[in-house]
Amino acid sequence: MSKDLLDKYSSTRIVAGPGSLAQLGKLSKELGAARVLVVSDRGVASAGHTQRGLDSLESAGLAVDLYDGVEENPTTIHVGEGLERANAFRPDLLVGLGGGSAMDCAKGINFVYSCGGSMADYHGVGKATSELLPMIGVPTTSGTGSETQSFALISDAATHQKMACGDKRASFKAAILDPLTTVTQPVQVTAATGIDAISHAVESYVTRQRNDVSKKLSVEAWNLLSGNFQKVIELPEDVEARAAMQLGACLAGLAIEHSMLGAAHSAANPLTARYGVIHGVAVG
């Protein structure tokens, strides 16, 4: 059921299963890549997942560069730093490898690298002025569902305004859901990201813009998330439960793409942007 919904309603190709991160190089080559910039964070790097992604890309014969300076709730500063790496390296494909912050930052870099200007130019919907580079999302948390969304949330470092920058051209061409990348998370991260995913399933079901498609996705996401959230808290190495949480978060993210969100996220986003409250804590 879940796979059928993704195949039917998502433009992003989903590759899922334990160890699927090893397919990153193959997928990148299939998308015509020769030079790949990986956008990640130091926590994911310290867990070894970033290096596994780099190894896969290099084994496929691709030139690779890394920007791993992303922090939680990315700002225009992180996009600017990543853009400097992109301008120097000249990639033809971007990989967002990490939580929602890394994936959103990859999208932000892509907007400015491909279209010019500044991040603020893309605040809103449909602001891209040209095609963007192809991207692959590799979520290492079960939270934001950014891998199936065409939006990036980037905060203005000067004003703390959280900018939602959306364009269909900012969707990932492919996403890799490898539950082994989530097993290493601290329990606090598992809890906060899980609450975020659950809130996506609930809000997208009750928002005024809900529709038949978003409700199907929300219900399926809720079933997966609510049935496995406690398991991954109590048994963090339960790979089957981890996989279900990843799939549930992915479906909830796709539900947002079809219906948007509601009051909980409207209230939470300023807490995150201005005061640095962890997003899953703010929304929960």
Structural notes for this entry:
The chain folds into two domains: 10-181, Rossmann fold, CATH 3.40.50.1970; 187-278, Dehydroquinate synthase-like - alpha domain (Dehydroquinate synthase-like, alpha domain), CATH 1.20.1090.10. The protein is 50% helix and 14% strand. It contains eleven helices and nine strands. The longest helix is centred in the last third of the chain and has 23 residues, at 212-234.
Properties at a glance:
11 helices; 6-stranded parallel β-sheet; single chain; 3-stranded mixed β-sheet; 284 residues; Rossmann fold; Dehydroquinate synthase-like, alpha domain; alpha/beta
Short description:
50% of the residues lie in helices and 14% in strands.
Shape designation: globular
Structure summary, number of beta strands: 9
Could you list the spans in which at least 5 consecutive residues all have pLDDT below 50?
none
**What is the second-level CATH architecture of the largest domain?**
3-Layer(aba) Sandwich
CATH topology of the largest domain: the name is: Rossmann fold
Strand content: 5-15%
Report the top-level CATH class of the largest domain: Alpha Beta
Order of helices and strands: HEHEHHEHEHEEEEEHHHHH
**How many domains?**
2
The main sheet comes to: 6 strands, parallel
Give the radius of gyration.
17 Å
Indicate the structural class. alpha/beta
Assign a percent range to the helix content: 40-55%
Strand order, largest beta sheet: 1-9-6-4-2-3
Total of helices: 11
Distance between the termini: 28 Å
- Mean pLDDT over the full residue set: 93
